[in-house]
Write a structure and sequence with these properties.
alpha+beta, 4-stranded mixed β-sheet, 7 helices, 49% helix
Length: 178
């Protein structure tokens, strides 16, 4: 079995970058400025502390552009993961990191609100493990300003996901885990 970090790198390269779900990811992947952290927390308190610690680390290490917190043990239930996302965002603000960092989230069972669980569009946010992506807001603002049509990215991703179909994404995500 390959490590959670390697599975996440496989997913990032073969899904997110290859299908351009995030047009900003390739630069950081190639430049090796992504920190991958395997977090074994199984309770929300420890997970939120790990998230805020991740922000503090990024704040102190400007050479690392972004961080993926990969939850290897906990938060396998999507609803529980959403609680983690909500609490992490609240603590991000309370810790003074609002405006400095933002959190994107990915989960093996990700389902968009008001979406069917079998909608292929969910695969735009499905990853091998529950994952919080810590993003520097200033860097994101610069990247978005340089992108010709940044506001269309989510709709473009959803269209591509649906065009390829559920089976395609399910098989691809499985390959990333091998």
């Amino acid at each position: 079995m390959i490590s959670a970090t390697q599975q996440t790198k496989n997913w990032l390269e073969n899904v997110i970058i290859k299908f351009n779900f995030c047009p900003f990811a390739k630069k950081e992947f190639v430049n090796n400025t992504i920190l991958y952290q395997e977090i074994d927390a199984t309770n929300i308190e420890d997970a939120v502390v790990a998230t805020i610690d991740g922000c503090a680390f990024l704040n102190e290490n400007p050479d690392i552009e972004t961080s993926l917190l990969i939850f290897t043990e906990g938060f396998t239930e999507f609803e529980e993961f959403l609680d983690l996302v909500e609490l992490s965002n609240a603590l991000l603000s309370a810790s003074g990191y609002e405006g400095t960092f933002q959190i994107a989230n990915f989960h093996p069972d990700y389902i968009f609100a008001d979406s069917d669980e079998n909608d292929a569009a969910n695969y735009t946010n499905r990853a091998p493990f529950p994952t919080l992506h810590l993003i520097r807001e200033a860097s994101m603002e610069k990247a978005v300003a340089l992108h010709p049509n940044a506001e269309a990215i989510p709709d473009t991703n959803i269209d591509l996901a649906r065009q390829k179909g559920l089976l395609f994404w399910r098989q691809l995500l499985t390959k990333c885990q091998q």
